[in-house]
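USER: Note each token:
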Amino acid sequence: METVAAIGLMSGTSLDGVDVALIETDGERVAAFGPHATYPYAPDDRALLVRAIEEAAPLTDRTARPGALAQAEAMLTARHGEAVACFVAAHPAAAQARVVGFHGQTVLHRPEIALTVQIGDGAGLARALRAAGLGPGATLVYDLRAADVAAGGQGAPLVPVYHAALAKGLDLPLPVLFLNLGGVANVTYVDGGADPVAFDTGPANALIDDFMKERTGRPVDAEGACAAAGRIDEAALARLLAHPFFAQQPPKSLDRNDFKAFVAEHAGLASKSIEDGAATLTALSAATVAAALPLLPQRPRAVVAAGGGAHNPTLLAMLAGRLGVPVTPAEAVGLSSDAMEAQAFAFLAVRALKGLPLSFPTTTGVPTPMTGGVSIPLQ
């Protein structure tokens, strides 16, 4: 199959910014990795997204945009358009992309009631892409989760089919586990034969980031420095690990804020120092990944870590200690921790245009392999 240049756009649960990546792909393999960049959200933009997520909690209609949601969607769409314009200006070859994959921003994920909500105006972004110099002849693909959820799947994770394509080019022993450490953590198990096995494992950065923002005003524990200086409350950790989600068989997926109330009730963070609170929450992220290993077909022989948490040496050290399997940052095997999800949505967009599956019974629990997405030609 012919390869095409494709741009992927991702705004993840960590709410740090718009990731843009260019790849060359036919939707089954990656022929070449192009440039990538992250365009951070301003503090006011991030605050608006936080408010939108809070106000999305009672939604039952995935198209509704009450309150801050409408404002956040307009802002998010504008920031994605600006990001692509900056990216094309810095990398003129990106203007030749024939496909753009747009994830939007997940503000609510409730697959148990067949509901997942990603804000982002496809038509508005299409106009911005044309202004940025893309098209004619290019196609925007967005709303990539909805078809899976409508068919009875979890709608997440969607990146595993990209992980499986990446695994073909790695010199690592199989089975290999891809570990995405965004706001939520998820794993993809690849053995080189069957469809990938994937599911969300628990919180990754979201609880840590929210705690740091509340206690310090900074939205991240940079390089895990606070956690490294703190002491883990093992009793609190045991209480948190008793949550039934962690032993639940997949398929399973999470909303960014699923454990917020549970942790507030059981972790005793209010009485802890910043360092001890960060250490306990970081240990929770590592321990919940470890709890996922018995749910896999076999024990992985290697782990490739990506996402923002892959830059947290304290979290990586805790993971290595609890998993008993080497944990390798994506960069060490020639991949990009920061660009991987944006690259994945470029890959998924190409697959969607070709009618290829984005999700599988083993990744989201959808009854049969499922394609998806809505496309807009950039005429």
